[in-house]
Design goal:
- By secondary structure, this protein is mainly alpha-helical.
- 67% of the residues lie in helices and 6% in strands.
- Strands 1-2 form a two-stranded antiparallel ribbon.
- The radius of gyration is 19 Å and the shape is globular.
């Protein structure tokens, strides 16, 4: 999971699944769902099988380049293993999403409204455990004007964000099994809290540092 080439493996597996599934798919494939699990977007069969493998491949290239162009690129050496664990976890999540799209298009019973939130919740728990190890940089983490202005604010904010991601991820994971009417507001509120609290904290901490 720490390998820089892991994304290429995920992209190859996604492409292999696409090649195998292509003759078995209908002309139009559901590729988007609302929070209640109702398909609300369709793509052609060609685009449905090509989209995610290309996204995974593109993200792998982007994440490989980021440390080289970051003005604070020297900091990546301090958390390089965590960086690639975070990157590869995101790529696996995209790959799983691709598999769900293919399985649904083939007529298998796939509860996308349950499985995707479940996967997202687990991803947030995973990210939260490594977010606290991320050193100041311009591309990964809670990047606000205030965290980028102070390494102390960065580290304190990311400690808080790490815990919030873990707790929020567990809530979303559990909520994936709740009735749809209860899950949607729970999901929205959880995402709002775990994203806005670190931003607000970063400003407050930065303000306290000012003379």
């Amino acid at each position: 999971m720490r390998s820089r080439r892991f994304g290429l493996v995920v992209a190859a597996l996604a492409a292999a699944l696409s090649v195998w599934a292509y003759p078995r798919l209908p002309d139009m494939v559901a590729t988007y769902w609302d929070l209640r699990g109702v398909p609300d977007g369709y793509s052609s069969r060609v685009w449905a099988v090509a989209m995610m493998p290309l996204v995974i491949l593109g993200l792998t290239g982007v994440f490989t380049v980021l440390p080289k162009v970051d003005p604070r690129g020297q900091n990546y050496a301090k958390f390089l293993d965590s960086y690639w664990l975070i990157v590869n976890a995101i790529l696996v999540f995209v790959g799983v999403g691709h598999a769900l799209i293919i399985a649904h298009a083939m007529g298998l019973t796939v509860h996308v409204d349950r499985l995707l939130p479940l996967g997202l919740g687990l991803l947030l728990v995973f990210l939260g455990n490594y977010l606290r190890r991320v050193e100041p940089n311009w591309f990964v983490g809670i990047r606000t004007p205030w965290t980028l202005s102070s390494d102390t604010v960065w580290r304190k904010t990311h400690r808080t964000a790490g815990w919030l991601f873990v707790i929020g991820g567990l809530i979303i994971t559990a909520g994936a099994f709740a009735p749809p009417g209860a899950f949607v507001p729970l999901f929205v509120v959880t995402l709002v809290v775990i994203t806005t609290v670190p931003v607000a904290q970063s400003y407050i901490l930065w303000k306290r540092e000012r003379p």
